[in-house]
UniProtKB/TrEMBL annotation:
Keywords: Hydrolase
Domain of life: Bacteria
Gene3D superfamilies named in the record: L-arginine/glycine Amidinotransferase, Chain A (3.75.10.10)
SUPFAM superfamilies listed in its UniProt record: Pentein (SSF55909)
UniProt-recorded Gene Ontology molecular function terms: dimethylargininase activity
EC numbers on record: 3.5.3.18
The protein's enzyme class: hydrolase
Protein name, per record: Dimethylargininase
């Protein structure tokens, strides 16, 4: 049980983001996307800027990936790779519309001398992988069911040298792991059980007995698509009940508005990749 007055300690992070300069809902590859819904392009950039400033204000470093015309989902920088302790496991997107984003991410890492491992298997980076350095000696949680394919979990384990726990996503609204589960510090998570198969729910309950459990309302408001530095939790402002639960557990919720990129089926976490050196 988490004590109410627990003092949480933030750890400085390095993030990667990509401006929504070319963001649009130009196709529909997840249940949240509707090409007839208008997007306010100016507001999208303003909200994304505020998110970037929020991270900087919390003392983190933010690197920028150059957005490319014709790749409207590039703002979802979390999907381009998965980085653990200096090794980058590259993405291979499921949908043709996003396939070219992988090369932009690869170039970013290779130009800066990161150890980049090209994937053979379909996987969408941090969209379906989460890393908890202090859980069970360093654990990767990995989703499959909609985007990342199961063989990618074994490939990631070989690439990164960390045990990978496969979790089966069963609800198409939670098509990536990072809409259903997030690390809130180096050893604990918050998640929405209903997004997972019954067996995966049991696995999560066994591995994380102190996890914070979110309800369907907060999960559907993209509340779990959050970024935490171990103390400050940046999350979608619509997930107010989850914010209350996090506060009660000693974290500081930092709500942000991301109404425009949400129309593409993503929120805070999708816009932010963590560069773990
Ligand atoms: C929170 N999620 C699911 C993400 N990690 N990424 C958002 C990707 C959105 C994009 N339109 C797509 O459908 O791929």
């Amino acid at each position: 049980m988490v004590s109410v007055n627990q003092h949480r300690i933030p750890r400085k992070r390095t993030y990667l983001m990509c401006s929504p300069e070319h963001f649009a809902v130009a196709y529909a590859i997840n249940p949240w996307m509707d090409v007839t819904t208008p997007v306010d392009a100016v507001l999208a950039v303003k909200q994304w800027d505020r998110l970037r400033e929020t991270l900087l204000g919390l003392g983190h470093d933010v690197h920028l990936l150059t957005p490319e015309a014709g790749l409207p989902d590039m703002v979802f920088a979390a999907n381009g790779a998965f980085v653990v302790d200096g090794t980058v496991y590259g993405a291979r997107f499921k949908h043709e519309q996003r396939a070219a984003e992988a090369a932009a991410h690869r170039a970013f890492y290779e130009e800066r001398g990161w150890h980049f491992i090209a994937p053979n298997e379909t996987n969408e980076g941090e969209g379906d992988f989460a890393y908890l350095p202090e859980a069970h000696g360093g654990l990767v949680l990995a989703g499959h069911g909609f985007r990342t394919e199961l063989p990618a979990h074994a490939e990631a384990q070989e690439a990164l040298g960390r045990p990978v726990v496969s979790l089966h996503l069963v609800d198409p609204r939670f098509y990536h792991l990072d809409v259903a589960l997030a690390s809130i510090d180096d050893g604990n998570i918050v998640y929405y059980p209903g997004a997972f198969s019954a067996a995966s729910q049991r696995v999560l309950a066994q591995l994380f007995p102190d996890a914070i459990v979110a309800d369907d309302v907060d999960a559907l408001a993209f509340g779990l698509n959050l970024v935490s530095d171990g103390a400050n939790v940046v999350l979608n402002s619509e997930a107010s009940r989850l914010a209350g639960k996090l506060k009660a557990a000693g974290y500081t919720p930092v709500p942000v508005e991301l109404t425009e990129v949400r129309k593409g089926g993503g929120s805070v976490k999708c816009c932010i990749a963590e560069l773990r050196n």
